[in-house]
Amino acid sequence: MRFDIISEIDDVETIATNISIREIERLRKIYGKARWRKKKGTATIVLEDGTMHRAEVHWYEATSFGRKEVKIKYLLD
Question: How far is Cα 47 from Cα 35, in angstroms, rounded to an integer?
Answer without folding.
Answer: 31
